[in-house]
Structure formats: structure tokens, C-alpha cells
């Protein structure tokens, strides 16, 4: 996995397992490159929490974090994970 904080790597492994772990850094790296701040670890952990181990959700929340990371932090803190269909996630809702 890329050079992520140990906590981020551990959480990604827990959620995605060893078989799907190589796919997660590609998505997470999109935010880390965008953020470049000390908040990146906190935001990435929130993104992972909201993804629930689903790569489509991971991609969605990384995109949301690049728009406004505060939204992702709020959603994760309040445990707000919209129950949308896979089709809605694919459309980027």
C-alpha cells in the first residue's frame, strides 16, 4: 500500500481484506494528493468508515472529500451513511 499513515493502512486492510487491499490506495491517493495537509489522515479514516468496505462508496467519498473534507468528517462523526442503491452510487449521487 502507498505511504499512508499506519492507522489508514490498518483500517483499509480491515475493511477491504488482503485480496482487495491493492485497489483501495488508488482511490485514497486521490484525496491525499489533493489534501496535502495534516488533516489528511483524519479525512482518509472518515472516508474509509463511510465506505463500509465498498470500492464504489470509497470512490464516492474521496470525491466528496476533495469538494469539502468537512462534509466527510461530519458524516463519519454522525454516522450518516446514505442507504442508496448501487445504481445511485454509480451515478455519483
Give a structural overview.
It is a single chain. The relative contact order is 0.15. The model has no long low-confidence stretch (mean pLDDT 79). The chain has helices spanning 6-20, 24-35, 40-51, 55-67, 69-77, 86-90. Helix 1 (6-20) packs parallel to helix 3 (40-51) and helix 3 (40-51) runs antiparallel to helix 4 (55-67). The chain has one domain. It has six helices and no strands. The longest helix is centred in the first third of the chain and has 15 residues, at 6-20. It has 93 residues and is mostly helical.
Secondary-structure blueprint:
Elements: H1 6-20, H2 24-35, H3 40-51, H4 55-67, H5 69-77, H6 86-90
Condensed summary:
With 93 residues, the chain is mainly alpha-helical. The protein contains 6 helices and no strands.
Key words describing this protein structure:
globular; mainly alpha; 93 residues
- What summary fits the major beta sheet? none
| Mean of all residue-level pLDDT scores | 79
Order of helices and strands: HHHHHH
Number of domains: 1
Shape category: globular
The first-to-last residue Cα distance is 28 Å
Poorly predicted residue ranges: none
**Spatial extent as radius of gyration:** 12 Å
Residue share in β-strands = under 5%
Number of E strands: 0
Question: What structural class is derived from the secondary structure elements?
Answer: mainly alpha
Percent helix, as a range, is over 70%
Count helical runs: 6
Amino acid at each position: 500500500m502507498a505511504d499512508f499513515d499506519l492507522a489508514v493502512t490498518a483500517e483499509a486492510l480491515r475493511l477491504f481484506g488482503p485480496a482487495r487491499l491493492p485497489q483501495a490506495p488508488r482511490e485514497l491517493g486521490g484525496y491525499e494528493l489533493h489534501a496535502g495537509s495534516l488533516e489528511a489522515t483524519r479525512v482518509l479514516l472518515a472516508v474509509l468508515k463511510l465506505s463500509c468496505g465498498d470500492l464504489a462508496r470509497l470512490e464516492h467519498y474521496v470525491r466528496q472529500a476533495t469538494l469539502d473534507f468537512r462534509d466527510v468528517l461530519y458524516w463519519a462523526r454522525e454516522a450518516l451513511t446514505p442507504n442508496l442503491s448501487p445504481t445511485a452510487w454509480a451515478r455519483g449521487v
